[in-house]
Amino acid sequence: MRASIIKAVIQRIEGNNLSLQEASAEIGITPASLTRHLSGEYVRSDSLAKYRLWLAGEVSTEKQSVKKQIDAFPSEELERRNEETYGPERIVPELLKQDTQHRVVDLFCGCGGMSLGFDRLHEGNIFNTVLAMDIEEPMTRVFNDNHPLEHEAELNIARKIDLTEFLSESEVLAFYLDHLYRTGHDPSLGEELKELDQGGIGRLRGKIKSLDEEFIERLIEIRNSDEYQNTYSLLKGNVLGQTSVIGFHQALRLPVSGKGLPRIGTILWHDDGKAPSEYHTCPDNDLYVARQKLMLRQWLKEVERLEERASGSGSGQLSSSARRIENFIQFLKSSPMLKVREAWIEWKALRDTLRINFFDRDDVKFKVKEVYNRGRQVSVVLGGPPCQGFSRIGRGKLRSLREQSVHVHEDDASGDSRNQLMHQYVMFVGALAPSVFLFENVRHFKSSVKLGGKQFDAADILAEAIENVSSRGIAYSVSSQIINASRHLVPQARERFFMAGVRKDTNTTYVNLNPAKWCLALPKYESVPLEAALEGLPEPLTVKEDIGHGTGTVPLREKHRVVGDTPFAKYNEWVSKPEDTLVDGHIARPARVDDRGFFEMLGPGKRWMDYRCDDSPTMQGLQKLVNKIYKLCEHNTDFLKELDIDINSLEELRQAVDGSLTLRLLLEGITPLPGEEKHHLITDTYLRKKEGQHGDWLARMDPARPSKTVVSHMAKDTYAYVHPTRPRTISVREAARIQSFPDDYKFGSVGLVDGFRVTGNAVPPLLGAQLAERVAQLLQYNAGQFSADPTVTKHHPPAAENV
């Protein structure tokens, strides 16, 4: 009977063309519950009764009233009224000074763009980022350069960590608390953490350190054998330099194969500061055996991926790469490498068993939560995982995570590493239970999931995932929105997907206010032009890409001081420092002499494709004429002699007369470099680029408008960012200015390539500051209402949902 009722519900939803929110409002249940029921989950009797009433045409008076209110206004008018009624000035007139700062954790932190906006809000009196994590070392290096600790501390704020390494919420909490203590943020934590099983996390790290050292010793022993040395000598060419081979080692956390001293790379708890080595434990044999089997599956899966790469068809470089990968696969099948595999399986299985035995004990779980709830709670979690695989995770998989002591690693169905990162993000939010979470992603983030023939919003799925994964049962009000940074004081047309989540255990009296939606509803401003970002910077140093660290430091030159309340002035106040300030990272690639000649011809805001002449009547007439002449000459050698041209030269001319003719003529007017017959850009590869075919690969920026989106691809090529007035591409510091990084933010410890990568990947800090102000107002208004444990919530959430 239940199945037939749900089938009738689906038919009615589809027949009336109702959205998930509209249907749930009419029925009187939450969108999350409706989605679960439509996907085939068990329906309780009370929900079943609501479905019967709805199918019979009976809707509660309360729900009818809400629907009438919604239908009475167009959505634009409703949003306008909501903004007018619940703007920031109506919730908190101004941020009050606080005795303590709200703690922030920044996942996938990059160089710290988003969290910088939080940390610098109101001169740093509101928020304090206490932990940041990223897998890339240049990102964490820049972050730590700009977040120095004011006291002696064992660790930096930013940690180079792969989030997929965490196995449980308990481990997440313990890691956070251990980090809080060892960075000096909470000295009293040390004694409390020692009360955990057998001396606490310090001794656990000691045992893990011993396991790691034993593993390295076994690898050294294998590598020193004649058998290994002989087998290794059969590797040909740059086999170990292949991207797929490097990825194999990274995926397994296996020291790179070679003859030298093996070194363990990035892996959780490895070489993690000082730690006593004494630790006594009796491993769970059943768990250890299970982990061994899992490790073997992981190894074989990575070998299978190599085999797929080696079997790929191709010629030239692709064929050569496939042969090298095949050579490495044969190396993996050798007797010495099978011994390496055996040692690796034992090491990883023991490591995981040790951690699971420690963190999954009920007394440890209880104690960790107790210590966390004793004033160490995180208020805000920032950071967006790469979510390209999010739409393929599935509700059932997300929901099942709560029952897994060990998360995604043991299930192939959870997909690629991008899906694992979303799982881990959900686990971190569930563990830390922040008052607010906020993350950013690319504009084309897959924001819907198809299930049972219907589309569901990713925000709803994430909200349900967090609610179900967390052992605390915490629920969030979630909203998502595309935000264009150019409307919020950033001189850059950067569109990104943002999602906010606010815990529902708050005491807001604004019945129609969706707090998550309100956090993202930022005031809009007139655009700040690119010239505002470039003002006051001298000419950069031009260097080769193999530049070392600590370069590109120059003094600011005198600039026009912008005052007032205009967008230009607000941006200037955030970014600019006194004229005698030294800024680093002001380094740019040197352009070729012949390319500088072309740059000088480009007008402001003009792209490569803008100089094509595909629609020119003159070009079309020439093309028609040359084609007719070619046809006449194909079978008339006398005509060729009359024209004093051979057929091959005529064919070249015929091919040249197309939409790229203008570009060709411009480039031919530039003297080629010594030894070159023509300008290096006169090739079919470049000349065929046009609309839809990367025609903006080379472009001059327009100083009167916001910049195009700054991206990490600048690490490889900056020709899409030619300076608006100079014959060169922009510098790392200029890219940082466009991203709204203040002049005192340091990038000098990384080179040019990494400098472009870390700036291009960042969230604009000035945009982060505006989001931070909204979050701060919400937290201040609801001061005292958030709790790390919903069982001690002071007030119930409001009855009404969002407008």
How are the SSEs placed, and which strands pair?
Layout: H1 2-15, H2 20-27, H3 31-38, H4 45-55, H5 61-71, H6 75-85, H7 88-91, E1 102-107, H8 113-119, E2 127-134, H9 137-145, E3 158-160, H10 169-182, H11 189-194, H12 201-223, H13 226-232, H14 243-252, H15 285-310, H16 317-332, H17 335-359, H18 362-373, E4 380-382, H19 395-400, H20 417-432, E5 436-442, E6 448-451, E7 454-457, H21 458-469, E8 476-484, E9 495-503, H22 515-520, H23 530-534, E10 541-542, E11 554-555, H24 567-575, E12 582-583, E13 587-588, H25 593-601, H26 617-634, H27 637-643, H28 647-656, H29 661-668, H30 684-687, H31 732-738, H32 752-760, H33 765-781
Parallel strand pairs: 1-2, 1-4, 2-3, 4-5, 10-13
Antiparallel strand pairs: 5-9, 6-7, 8-9, 11-12
Concise account of the structure shown:
This protein is of the alpha/beta class and 803 residues long. It has 33 helices and 13 strands.
- Kindly report how far apart the N and C termini lie: 34 Å
Share of β-strand residues: 5-15%
Overall pLDDT level: 81
Biggest sheet, open or closed, and with what strands and sense? 7 strands, mixed
* Low-confidence regions: 59-79, 81-93, 388-416, 784-803
Global structural class: alpha/beta
Spatially, the strands of the biggest sheet line up as: 3-2-1-4-5-9-8
* Tally of individual helices: 33
- Binned, the helix content reads 40-55%
User: Overall 3D geometry?
Assistant: globular
Spatial extent as radius of gyration: 31 Å
Question: Got a strand count?
Answer: 13
